[in-house]
Amino acid sequence: MFLITRLFLYLDAGTSDYSDPTVKTKTPAELIKLVTKSNVYPNPFDITLDGHPLALTNDEAYKVQSDLFNLTLPANNLWGEPAGPDQAITQGWWLMLKPLPPGQHTVHYTMGYRDSKSDPTIPPGQGNQSPYIQDVTYRLAVK
CA 31, CA 23: separation in Å to the nearest integer? Predict the structure, then answer.
């Protein structure tokens, strides 16, 4: 059993690590450059808690970046990178919720990134390298 006093949810962020074959120079500055390049032109956020909208926007002022941190990638990971210890930097938007009252709760959000092919207002060749939309629902049981 875990006692959770705050809930910290990953909403939309990029992570760059040294095992990524696109990382040519193995420095924190290079990781920051790559993760920043992938975190441009986010779609507007649509976030609800128990059906009520939450006021978090994709404004750059709310975007945060981690320090260099350690991680261990499993075999056959989503990114096709070698298994084992690595270091990474992440940058993006997260949601921290205060303690919820006992009962069932639902956090739902949609967001993602655009590029110049999916949005004509973005300059040609700019935007996320792999545009996408995600639709995520967390069902929480608080005791």
Answer: 7
Q: Please give the Cα distance from 118 to 10 (Å, whole number).
A: 24
CA–CA dist 134, 42 (Å, integer): 11
For residue 72, CA distances in Å to 25, 65, 68 come to: 20, 19, 13
Q: Are 97 and 107 in contact (CB under 8 A)?
A: yes
Q: What is the DSSP string of the chain?
A: ----S-EEEEEEEEEEETTSTT--S-SHHHHHHHHHHHS-SBPPPEEEETTEE------GGG-EEPPPEEEEEPTT-TT-PPSEEEEEEEEEEEEEEPPPPSEEEEEEEEEEEEETTT-TTSPTT-EEEEEEEEEEEEEEEE-
Distance CA 143, CA 140 (A): 10
- Walking along the chain (143 residues) 10 residues at a time, the average pLDDT comes out as 62 72 76 77 84 83 86 87 86 84 91 76 72 85 86
Sign of CA dihedral 15, 19, 22, 28: positive
Q: What is the pTM of this model?
A: 0.71
